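Journal club prep, shared notes

We agreed each person brings one worked example of a sequence with its structure written out as tokens. Mine is DUF368 domain-containing protein. I'm keeping it raw so we can talk through how to read the token line rather than staring at a rendered picture. Sequence first:
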Amino acid sequence: MKNDSIKNWLTRFFKGVFIALGFILPGVSGGVLAAILGLYERMLNFMANIRQNFKRDFWYFVPVGLGGIVGIILLSNPLEYLLTTYKAIILWGFAGAIVGTLPSLFRESAKEGRQRSDWYIFAGTVVFGGLFLYNMTAIFGEMPVNFFSWLLAGGLIALGIIVPGLSPSNLLLYLGLFDPMIKGFKSADLDVFIPMAIGGLITLVLFSKIMHYLLQNFHAKVYHFILGIVVVSTLLIVIPPVADYSGFTIVSMLISTFLFAIGVWLGYWMSHLEQKYK
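Then the structure, token by token:
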């Protein structure tokens, strides 16, 4: 392998490590990071037209995928500790990062105009989606942690790549899959990695074309639905039962407020980076 080839391979590997942030940090979108690093359009074209130049694109993205796996394993250790020790405080920081992306999502939703029906979709998603998600455990019981739930988790994370600005990790938090996912990543558990990879690949292959069609024909409606989901899931991760406020003090509240503000700034900054590099 020539020196230039080694350099390009390592560059893509470290890009994958960086994109791993979008897989496991609520408020950070893998699609935004892929856009910033110049990989988003090629990746979407590859997934939407997988038989075209398959061999060339497959080997191009191999180091990105390996870097993503390494990044996930490295980041999972400190994240698991923080969520175990300071969960409510850290969740407020994550919520701030998600809130910081809302202005960008709001602008994107009006990119091709906005109609009254779009607001109805947003309001309906917030009200009915919120009621459904909040009462989901009472309706269906606790979500089991098994092969099929990991398929779902992988699919949700893949949606965060297909739709820049969407961070599915807050949904994983509410579904109770985030903590066991981090533990599985930390121990490099193949029973977690393999079904998530399968779910992610299936979603990328199936939904790349679908999402392209929906955004081309129903751009505003799709983004108003996404806005509603983001607003609802953000609220749900900072209220019980996801956030545990036992032992929460004035100091905890001040730190949470500070981290929320930092999160808002970080999310807003990331959104502007996406617009710059999109």
